[in-house]
Amino acid sequence: MPDAPTAGLLLVDKPAGISSFGAIARLRRAYGRKLGHTGTLDPFATGLLVVLHGRATRLAPYLGGLDKRYLATVQFGATSTTDDPEGDVEQTGGTTTEAQLVAALPAFIGEIQQIPPAASAVHIDGERAYRRFRRGETVTVPARQVAVHGITLMHFDVATQTAQLDISCGTGTYIRSIARDLGDELGTGAYLTALRRTEVGGFRVEDAAAPDAIADSLPGTLAWAAPLAAIPTLPRREITPAERTAIGHGQRIPNLELHGDVALIAADALVAIGAADGLEIAPRLVLEPA
Fold first, then answer.
1. Active-site residue, from 42, 83, 84, 181
2. How confident is the model at residue 126 (pLDDT cuts 50, 70, 90)?
3. Is the per-residue pLDDT at 95 higher than 80?
4. Strand locations in the chain (E)
């Protein structure tokens, strides 16, 4: 097996039926064990996982808070104990119309209060909510504020009472909760039957590949991005060979104008992220040590 690149990003199109960790595990035969994720998907969900490899795993804090976009399929006229297809489903018999659904959507856009599902990874008194839920305990998850940037109705089938929604949102938003709450708002009950993540920040699922296809390809060739792609909005500073050596040794370099986090670049490659104070740049995160 050819040596894997030392650092970078893998854009994985996760299939349904496996966990995010299972998808990442399939990459290890080509990329080894040093892989990290920047946000998981439930086993029933598909779509984009941004996986970090090698020293690029240190960039996880810059990717964890990125906005996301989903295609969600919602079934009206029924509820689920987990708000998704993995729970116990109960029919309610309620029905809605496309016009009623469209009229309900604006209330779920903006900075909203949302209650995560009982079967979620939210911590309740130091324990994941889903662990208590699986033990049969009554789980009360407190509401929290999330950002939903937009919801577009892509298709509604009145006969099957299913809708496909295109949802863009901030980190921490539960699409399952949006489906459940839409059902409550319309008086029909509803739950999420399918979910596909299409975007994470500026990354798109069209540029991703299935985990097995990535593992079977030459490392660094399929669905691969350089570390610099993880921080497109950071200001950049080209560094000299001498400065590159200094940064690699953890030393500061001169700085006359920049403030805050700065991408330190050499030969179009990310060497480090530095903290600039207007006078100097101190290495904060070094991808290429001396």
1. 42
2. low
3. yes
4. 7-14, 35-37, 46-54, 68-76, 78-80, 89-91, 110-114, 123-124, 127-128, 144-157, 162-169, 190-200, 203-204, 224-225, 236-238, 253-254, 259-266, 269-277, 280-286
One domain for residues 209 and 279: no
148-161: pLDDT as tens digits? 999 999 999 999 99
Domain shared by 72 and 196, yes or no: yes
**Could you tell me if 116 and 210 lie in one domain?**
no
Q: Which residue do the tokens 């990874």 mark? A: 121
Residues 239 and 234: their CA atoms lie apart, in Å, by: 15
Same domain, 75 and 24: no
Instruction: For 69-78, write each residue's pLDDT tens digit.
Output: 999 999 999 9
**42 part of the active site:** yes
- pTM equals 0.90
Residue range of the domain that includes 256: 234-286
119 and 90 in one domain? Answer: yes
Answer yes or no: do 196 and 89 share one domain.
yes
* Residue 2 belongs to a domain: no
